[in-house]
Amino acid sequence: MYIPAHAKNENEEELIDFIRKNGFGIVVSTVEGKLWATHVPLILDGNKLHGHISRGNKQWRELPEGEEVMVIFQGTHAYVSSSWYDHENVPTWNYIAVHAYGKARMLSEEKLIESLRQLTNKYEKDSAHPVSVDTMSHKFFHGELRGTIGFEITIDRLEASYKLSQNRDEKNHTTIIAELDKRGDENSVGIANEMRKFGVVKKQ
Fold this sequence. Notes:
single chain; alpha+beta; Pnp Oxidase, Chain A; seven-stranded antiparallel beta sheet; elongated
């Protein structure tokens, strides 16, 4: 993807943490010669992403063909009005996005079950009455399992754009943060917090 120099993030530890916190990804590959995207929750385990898709989704039939697959992870994002600057400029959008690239393979039934267990446990941990793969009836769970295909993607490389107004001066950067906080919605406040964390790029 296109990444302006000031927005490039090559800190692998930060990117891994971002993927763990924003695990609902978009798996992009080619199906029958055309681009195909599936929105799916994923678990990161070392340098591997694992998840599952419906057997009815024909993307899985071409995932193991050895071609590179791209997975898009997106975090908080917000519109930035140029009316907030102390000079004439254009509006923009601040965001964080990470792309993971690698090759996929299908999972055995045993590994698919473990993947589903990890995924369910991760997102059920804060539920009042957590659902668990291990407490579902055998008949029900294995009936659902028949319609599910598990896959694993070994990550070869990561690309990330942290577009957070780092190219602005301190005054305008501070104003943008204040205006985002004032707006008050979850995305705007989230971007404001990320802007505080990363600051501005110091001019050489």
